[in-house]
């Protein structure tokens, strides 16, 4: 169960059908994007995710449906302490990681789940230069998201698209045919 501030509860009561409809649209759009990633596994249990990640290196992750009713998705990732699960919360049309109440207001919110994952992958890549070190002073474990586990081998086209999106500033400015630009922008992420 997650906690909400009293302001958020009042906002929920005042929200009309339009908000519900836009939330449904946002979730439908998120699902469409996730199906293109190759690292979204759908209805996978925590134990099945643990088995998949068991022999992986730290930072390996996958995304799956959450088994808890209050959450839509869960990131299962390999940490220095073994596989762990992070729930993704969806509130007021935005996605963010679930966390303890004190940290929750500080967490970034995203319009899509793929944007959320992409952000934390980029953050992991930049912080990876710092020495990794297992457990922190209060027993916390550093979370890295560096390498997705694909459900099946992705196509060469998709891998090229991810590489191009990761290195090009603006795909629309590239000297490519419009059809290829459309393909590249159909999945404009670098993870």
Give the overall average pLDDT. 82
**What is the strand tally?**
5
**Overall tally of domains:** 2
CATH domain class name of the largest domain = Alpha Beta
Overall structural class, as computed from helix and strand content, comes to alpha+beta
CATH topology of the largest domain: SHC Adaptor Protein
Spans of at least 5 consecutive residues with low confidence: 1-16, 129-136
Strand content: 15-25%
Helix/strand order: HHHEEEEHEHH
CATH superfamily membership of the largest domain, which one?
Answer: SH2 domain
Rounded to an integer in angstroms, the radius of gyration calculated over CA atoms is 18 Å
Number of helices: 6
Description:
- With 191 residues, this protein is of the alpha+beta class.
- The chain folds into two domains: 6-151, SH2 domain (SHC Adaptor Protein, 2-Layer Sandwich), CATH 3.30.505.10; 153-191, Orthogonal Bundle (Elongin C, Chain C, domain 1), CATH 1.10.750.
- It contains six helices and five strands, in the order H-H-H-E-E-E-E-H-E-H-H.
- The chain has helices spanning 6-14, 17-37, 46-53, 113-127, 156-167, 178-186; strands at 60-65, 73-79, 82-91, 94-97, 147-148.
- It has a five-stranded mixed β-sheet, sandwiched between helices.
- Strand 3 and strand 4 form a beta hairpin.
- The chain is globular, with a radius of gyration of 18 Å.
- Mean pLDDT is 82; it is low at 1-16 and 129-136.
């Amino acid at each position: 169960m997650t906690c909400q501030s009293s302001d958020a509860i009042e906002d929920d009561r005042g929200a009309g059908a339009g908000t519900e409809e836009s939330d449904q649209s946002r979730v439908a759009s998120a699902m469409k994007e996730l199906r293109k990633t190759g690292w979204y596994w759908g209805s996978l249990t925590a134990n099945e995710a643990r088995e998949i990640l068991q022999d992986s290196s730290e930072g390996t992750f996958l995304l799956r449906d959450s088994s808890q009713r209050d959450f839509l998705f869960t990131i299962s990732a390999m940490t220095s302490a073994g596989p762990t699960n992070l729930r993704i919360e969806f509130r007021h049309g935005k996605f963010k990681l679930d966390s303890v109440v004190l940290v929750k207001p500080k967490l970034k919110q995203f319009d899509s789940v793929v944007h959320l994952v992409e952000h934390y992958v980029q953050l992991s890549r930049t912080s990876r230069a710092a020495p990794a070190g297992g457990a922190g002073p209060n027993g916390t474990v550093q979370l890295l998201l560096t390498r997705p586990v694909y459900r099946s081998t992705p196509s060469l086209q998709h891998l090229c698209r991810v590489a191009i999106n990761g290195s090009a500033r603006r795909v629309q400015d590239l000297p490519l045919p419009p059809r290829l630009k459309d393909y590249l922008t159909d999945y404009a992420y670098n993870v």
